[in-house]
Write a structure and sequence with these properties.
This protein is an alpha/beta fold and 274 residues long. It has nine helices and ten strands. A six-stranded mixed beta sheet has the order 6-7-8-3-9-10, with helices on both faces. It has a four-stranded antiparallel beta sheet with strand order 2-1-4-5, with helices on one face. Helix 5 (121-134) packs across helix 6.
Length: 274
């Protein structure tokens, strides 16, 4: 039996009295596309950072690709991982071409200049061009990254996360700054990468309705996983209230929406209160 791509067991992070993540366990198989939802401060970004090996949990165990994630294995395991962190809104005033920003996602970019010289440069160029093509930014590869629109910058950052063709892709609100057309293209691309390349995707998003026809499941996070909704599941009202508080209202939604309330409800939508 193939080991899961990611296996987290009893993860805790933060102070004992007020943890950010507490007793969190999660398992994700190869080719699975998971959406992660939850209120502000629920620990969504922290969870991705921990899986990426950038933040060490205070307790618990993590396996990636069947191997324990620790100080000795982290660098090796990160070779098969792509990570798009949440956009901070401000960019450093450094003149970089789009091509060079994407190149930063390659493992060889962080090696010595001599080692990089010995590598197959054409292969790396092909990988960069392929990543730019995936996000429809090939025509901008020699443009100054600073001069791009917010949506274009986000697509370049996504290309940087994709350039090494990772087995596991972690995305923190990747649709931020994208217009509705490019949001749709993003979700279609991620679905295709899961189905055709066997890539595993964990994606933090706020709008469950926007992603529901693309993801395989939706994990409801607020310190721990309150519910893991799969195809055909409806997230119970009490789960929404556990995550967002008793003031939340649950709304009617299309029956095909993973985790959404069935049509019998007629008040405002809970997942818009992130």
């Amino acid at each position: 039996m193939t080991a899961p791509v990611a296996h987290l067991s009893h993860i805790r992070f933060g102070s004992p009295k007020k943890p950010i993540l507490d007793h969190l366990s999660l398992e994700v198989e190869a080719g699975h596309f998971m959406g992660i939802i939850g209120p502000n401060g629920a620990g969504k970004s922290t969870l991705l950072s921990i899986i990426a090996g950038l933040t060490k949990p205070d307790a618990g165990h993590i396996d990636l690709f069947g191997r324990c994630l620790n100080r000795k294995t982290r660098q090796t395991l990160q070779q098969d991982l792509g990570y798009l962190h949440q956009s901070q809104g401000t960019q450093p005033d450094i003149p970089l071409r789009v091509y060079d920003v994407v190149a930063m996602g390659l493992s060889s970019y962080h090696t010595s200049l001599f080692t990089r010289f010995l590598r197959n440069k054409q292969h790396e160029k092909d990988m960069i061009c392929h990543a730019l093509d995936l996000v429809e930014m090939t025509n901008h590869q020699y443009a100054d990254f600073r001069n791009l629109s917010g949506g274009q910058q986000q697509r370049v950052r996504l290309a940087r996360a994709l350039v090494r063709q990772p087995k596991l892709l972690l995305l923190d609100e990747p649709s931020a700054a994208l217009d509705s057309r490019h949001q749709e293209k993003l979700y279609q691309l991620l679905r295709k990468l899961c189905d055709e390349k066997g890539m595993t995707v964990l994606m933090v998003e706020h709008d469950i309705a926007a992603i529901t026809s693309y993801v395989d499941s939706v994990a409801c996070l607020n310190k721990n996983i309150h519910y893991h909704a799969k195809k055909g599941d409806t997230i119970p009202d009490e789960v929404w209230r556990e995550m967002y508080g008793d003031h939340v209202n649950i709304v009617a939604h299309d029956a095909s929406c993973i985790g959404c309330a069935p049509v019998k409800h007629n008040v405002q939508e809970g997942h818009h209160h992130d």
